[in-house]
Amino acid sequence: MRALHEWNLSYAEARQVQVELAGRVEFVPLEKEPQVIAGLDCAFSGDGKRTFAAAVVLRVIGWHYGQPGPFDFEHVETATAQQETRFPYIPGLLSFREAPVCLEAVAKLGRQPDLFMIDGQGVAHPRRLGLASHLGLFFDKPTIGCAKSRLIGKYAEPGVEKGAWSPLRDGEETIGAVVRTRSRVKPVFVSVGHQCTLEDAIRITLACATRYRIPEPTRLAHQAVSRLR
User: Fold this and answer.
1) Are the C-beta atoms of residues 175 and 124 closer than 8 Å to each other?
2) What do you get for the CA distance between the two ends of the chain, in Å?
3) What is the pLDDT of residues 110-141, one digit of tens each?
4) Are 133 and 123 in contact (CB under 8 A)?
5) Which value, in Å, is the radius of gyration of the alpha carbons in the chain?
6) Which CATH architecture group holds 11-228?
7) Less packed terminus of the chain by CB within 10 Å, N or C?
8) What residue segments make up the domains of the chain, in order of their start?
9) Whole-angstrom Cα distance, residue 176 to residue 167?
10) How would DSSP label each residue in the chain?
11) Distance, CA of 85 to CA of 63 (rounded, Å)
């Protein structure tokens, strides 16, 4: 992993880091189809004093490029971490609160994935650097943000069937997609984290959505971090 900056920052310094790092996010097609995918999620104790993270690594089974999915998965490993919460809750700066423990969990993995799927925003963020983009730059790996709710942007409701999606826009800029991962169920909010395109992010998210609204990598990571908490 890269060492991009220190964590002992003022609020103004953290915002400036976001602006600088957002310019490093790479919107490029995936070089290869991911064979190993990690889901990553974090949570807080009831009093907010401790932060927890879980990284769940899954191997894709029996899938070939061009197939629509969904993927079949084999569990490889799970790594967890917990830390004292050191950064306060400030909308727009949540990655400075969450990223350090996520980095610790990923550092414990024995198998590094081809792609990370993170429960959080990628570039669908006021300064274009949500948790998925922030971590993607640290990992220097393809990273997708798949959030349960919208942070910013406007959209038209996508069609009701699985696979339908509509663009998420901030002004004239498309910053993500609102994706129906299960028919007649609330959509998820997908955006580029790093080193992929929005089309890649939508396709991989849909292929990772098996029987549930939440794609399997982040669904299992959420279960793991909930048990840890």
Assistant:
1) yes
2) 26
3) 999 999 999 999 999 999 999 999 999 999 99
4) yes
5) 16
6) 2-Layer Sandwich (3.30)
7) N
8) 11-228
9) 6
10) ------S---HHHHHHHHHHHHTT------SS--SEEEEEEEEE-TTSSEEEEEEEEEEEES--TT-----EEEEEEEEEEEEE--S---TT-HHHHHHHHHHHHHHT-SS--SEEEESS-SS-STTS--HHHHHHHHHTS-EEEEESS-SS-B-PPPPSSTT-EEEEEETTEEEEEEE-SSTTS--EEEEEEESS-HHHHHHHHHHH-SSSSS-HHHHHHHHHHHHH-
11) 40
C-alpha distances in Å from residue 164, one per residue of 65, 140, 158, 195, 202: 20, 30, 6, 24, 10
Note the Cα 211 to chain centre separation in Å.
19
CB-based contacts of 7: which residues, under 8 Å, 6+ apart? Answer: 86, 87, 96, 100
Distances (CA, A) of 79 to 75, 112, 134, 186: 12, 11, 20, 29
Structure tokens that stand for 37 in this block: 């995918």
For the chain, give the number of residues.
Answer: 229
DSSP 104-159: HHHHT-SS--SEEEESS-SS-STTS--HHHHHHHHHTS-EEEEESS-SS-B-PPPP
pTM over the 0.85 mark: yes
Render pLDDT for 140-179 as a digit per residue (tens, 0 to 9). Answer: 999 999 999 999 999 999 999 999 999 999 999 999 999 9
